[in-house]
Amino acid sequence: MAAGCQEQETEFYQPGNVIIGAIASQVFYFHDSPTFIEQPTQALIDEPVSMPKMYQHILALAFAVKEINKNPKLLPNITLGFHIINGYYIAKMTYKATLNLLCAQQRFVPNFICGSQKELIAVIGGYVTEASAIMANIVAIYKIPQLTYGSFSPAHGDKTAFPFLYQMVPNEDYQFRGVLQLLHHFGWVWVGLLAVDDDYGDRFLKAIMPLLTQNSICYAFIIRLTNRSYVAEYLDFMIDQVDNYRVLMERKANACFVYGEPPSWQDLRMLLFYVPFFSLPPVGKVWIATSQWDFESLSVQQLWDIQHFHGALTFTVHSNEPLGFQKFVHSIKPSWTIRDGFIQNFWEQAFLCSLKNSNVNAGNTKFCTAEEKLDSLPHTFFEMKMVGHSYNIYNAVYAVGHALHAIYKSKFGERRFQERGRVGFLTTWLWMFHHSLKNILFNNSAGDNVRFDENRELVTGFDLTNWVTFSNNSFVRVKVGRLEPQAPPCKQLTINDDLIEWHRSFNQVLPLSMCNDNCYPGFSRKKKEGEKYCCYDCSPCPEGMISGQKDTDECFRCLEDQFPNKNQDQCISKFLNFLTFSEPLGVTFVFLALTFSLITALVLGIFIKHRDTPIVKANNRDLTYVLLISLFLCFLCSLLFLGKPHAVTCSLRQTAFGIIYSVAVSCILSKTITVVLAFMATKPGSSMRKWVGKRLANCILLSCFFIQTGICVLWLCTAPPFPDFNMKSVVKEIIVECNEGSVTMFYCVLGYLWFLAIVSFIVAFQARKLPDSFNEAKFITFSMLVFCSIWLSFVPSYLSTKGKYMVAVEIFSILASSAGLLGCIFSPKCYIIILRPELNSKDLLTRRH
Q: Fewer beta carbons within 10 Å, N or C terminal of the chain?
C-alpha cells in the first residue's frame, strides 16, 4: 500500500456464492492521525509505511480459495469468495473494516446486513489479540464464526465471552511452559524479561513471574516495550529507553524472554538501531520469544541490520509447504488482478520503486519494471516459503471449506442452501456451520491433521526455531526442536542441541545465563542475604559429605559402604579391610606360627626320645607332654585369625584359643603346685604326702579345662561371634571382622586365663628358691612374668587399633606369649638334654644344697 491510495484500494475482493471475510494488518502509521495522506509529495515520515512481509498472508488466503474452487470433490457447485480489508493495527480502523465486511457497498449502516446477495459465512483475522477481540465483539452479534490466525491473549477476559471465536494457534500458556522447559534444558536461571507496555504485557508478567519462581528461575530485569505507532512518540520512547538499554547490557543475563505482539519486534529493533548514536556498545543475547514474534521489517527498515538477533530461539507455529504454493507466488505480478488493492503498495514498498500508473511516489526517479523477483527480497520483507501465520490462514480457509462441505453433503443442508435468500436462512445456516466447524476433522494437502479441541483451539504443536541471520538481512529458519502440548509433561519439548547456532559473541559455546558462576561438584549453594534466591555463594562441603552435581543446595553423605573422594564430588566404594595370608604381615605371622609349631614339635620329640631321663621324668612327664601339645596347638590356632572372617572361623577363633591356652596354663599351674607339695611332703609328719602324685595334677588340669570349656560353650549358645562389616571405624575402609557377639563372654575367657596365669605366677614365685637342681619354679616364674606382661599390654593395644591391626595385635600376643612359655620353660631343659647330658643324672636330682 502506497500513500495517496483510496480506502477501497486497500481491499482485495473475489466474488463467490459464499464470502470469507478477512481483516489484514498490513500498515504501520507514522503519523499523528490514522488517516491516509493524499498528497504524494509528503515526506516519508507522514506516509503509511507497510510491512511487505504481511502480503504473504493475503496470498495464502487467495491460494487456498483457488485450490478449493478447483477441487471438484470439495464444495461442488459452490464457489468460495473472499473479501480482505486492511485493519492498520489501529482499533477504530479495525472496527470500520469489520463493519465493512458486513456490507456490500462502500458505506455501512450498523445493525443492518447490507448486500444480502453475498453471504458472509466466516471471518478470518486478526493477526493480534486486540484486532481479534474487536472483530469478535462485532461478528458474534451476527453469529458469524471467526478464525483468528494470530495470537489471542485472554487479557480481555474469559474465552467464553467469544463463543464464535476459533483459534488457529493453541493457547499461549503452552508456549510459556515450553519456554520454562527450554530454560531448564540449558540451565538458564537468570533471565531478562521484555514485555510490551500494555494490558497484554501486564497479563504476561502476571502469568510468567509465578511460573519462574515455581521453577527456580529468577528474572534479572524487566523492560517494557512501547506500543506506540508514531515517529514522534518513538523518538521520545528511544530517549527514555537509554537507561533500559544499560540494564539490557547486564552480561550475566544472556537469555532474554521477549513477549509482545506485532509491532513489538519493530520496537526492539528500533531500540537496538538507535543505541550506537548514544555511544553504547552492542549486546549479544539469546532472544527467546513465542509464536507472536516474526522477523518482519517496515519498508523504512530495509537496510537495518538484524545481526543482533542471530541465534534467537522462538516457538513458531508449525507449518508445512502446500504443494504448488511456490509456483503460485512466482506468478505474482503487479497486474495479476485488478481486484487486489494491496499488491501495488506491496510492490512499491518492497522494491522501493514507483509503478508507472501510480502517483504516490511521483518524486521517486526509480520506476518499477514489474519484472522484479520476489525471491531477491530480504527475508524480513518477504519469504517464498509459507510461514507459520500464512499456514494458519491456509488451514483456516480449508476448515471453512470442509465445514461447508459437511453441511452441503447432508440432505437438510443442501435443501437449506437452495432456500437461501429467504428470511432466517442465514441465521440457521450459520448455526449449522458453527456446529460443523467445531467438529471438523481432515488432513490438509500438506499432510497435517486439522481439528479443534473443546476450547475451539487448533490441536497442533510448535516448532522450536533457531534464527540464523546473514549480513544481507536474510535469514534461515532452522527447526531445532518441537513442542507438543498433548505429549506427557516430560516429553513435551524435544531439542537437538547440535543444530543450534548461537549468537556470534558466544563463539558457538552454550551461553550461560546465571546470576553468578556455577557451584561445581564439591560445593553447595549458600543464599546471599538481600539477593534473589538465584544469587548465591559457593561453600565447600563439610568433611565426609559430597555434592555430585553443579548448583546443589546442600551436600549429602555417601552410603555406608562408600566414602568421599579428595574433591568431595563423588563417592568411592570402600576397600575391604582384613588380614590376609598373602600380605607381608600375614606372611610373617604364618612363618612365625609354623616355625614355632615345628620347634614345639621338635621339643616334644626330644622329650619323648629322652622320656626315661631324670630331667624329663621330673615334675610329671605327662603334664610336660600335654603342655607341649597345647603350645603346639596355640601356635597353629593363630592361623584362624588370618583370612576373611566366616561364621566357622569366627566361632573357633576365640573359643579354640581360650580352651587351648587354658590347658597350657593349667599344666603350668599343676606343675608348680606339684613342686610345692613335693617339698612340703618331705617334712617329717607332713599331711601333704597324700596329695602328692599324678591324681592332683590331673584334677587341677581337668577342672581348669572344664571351667574354660563351660564358659566357651555358654558363649556359643547365647551370643556367639559372627562375621561383621564395620563401616564407621575407618573412613575409607570396610573392616571385615569377627564381632565378639558378647563382649562380656570374651573378657570372661581372657579373664579366666589371666586368673590362671596370676595364680601360677604367685605359686611359682613362692617356690622359686626351693633347693633342687631340676626345680622348674624359677623358670615358670619368669615365663609367667613374660606371659602376664604380654597380655596386660594386649588390652590397651587391642582397644587402640582398628581393622586388621587389631587382629595382628591378638596374633602377636598369642605367638609371643606361647613362645615365651616355650622358651622360658623348655630351653634350659633342652640345653641340658642336648648339650650337657652329664647333668641329666639321678645324683644331681637328689643332691641337696
A: C
* Distance between CA atoms of residues 194 and 285, nearest Å: 12
Residue 592 and residue 567 in contact, taking contact as beta carbons nearer than 8 Å = no
Cis peptide before 126 (omega within 30 of 0): yes
Report the Cα 153 to chain-centroid distance in Å. Answer: 31
pLDDT band at 287 (very low <50, low <70, confident <90, very high): very high
Phi, psi of 768 (to 5 degrees): -65, -25
SS3 462: strand
Residues 201, 313: Cα–Cα separation, whole Å: 20
DSSP 189-221: -EEEEEEESSHHHHHHHHHHHHHHHHTT-EEEE
Which cell numbers hold the place of 327? Answer: 509456483
What's the pLDDT at 42? 31
pTM value > 0.70: no
Residue type, 103: C
CA separation for the pair 651, 660 (Å, rounded): 14
- Tally of domains in the chain: 4
- Angle, CA of 540, 541 and 544, to the nearest 5°: 140
- Euclidean distance between CA atoms 77 and 74, whole angstroms: 9
**441 domain residue, yes or no:** no
24 and 161 part of one domain:
yes
| Grid cell in block for residue 78 | 459452490
How far apart are alpha carbons 10 and 345 in whole angstroms?
9
Residue 260 is assigned to a structural domain of this protein:
yes
User: Is 295 in the same domain as 405?
Assistant: no
Do 60 and 118 reside in the same domain of the chain?
A: yes
DSSP for residue 442? E
Q: How far apart are CA 412 and CA 660, in angstroms?
A: 111
> Quick one: pLDDT band at residue 45, thresholds 50, 70, 90?
very low
Cell of 314: 522462538
* Residue 435 near residue 413 (C-beta atoms within 8 A): no
Report whether 586 contacts 579 (CB < 8 A): yes
- 619 confidence band (pLDDT: 50, 70, 90): low
Assess whether 178 and 166 both reside in one domain: no
- 822: domain range? 584-846
3-state secondary structure of 600: helix
Q: In this predicted structure, what is the pLDDT of residue 50?
A: 62
Of 156, 95, 96, 149, which is closest to residue 122 (Cα–Cα)?
149
Question: Which residues 6+ apart lie within 8 Å of 126 measured at CB?
Answer: 23, 25, 87, 94, 132, 134, 135, 148, 149, 150
The β-bridge partners of 562 are: 573
* 260 shares its domain with 355: no
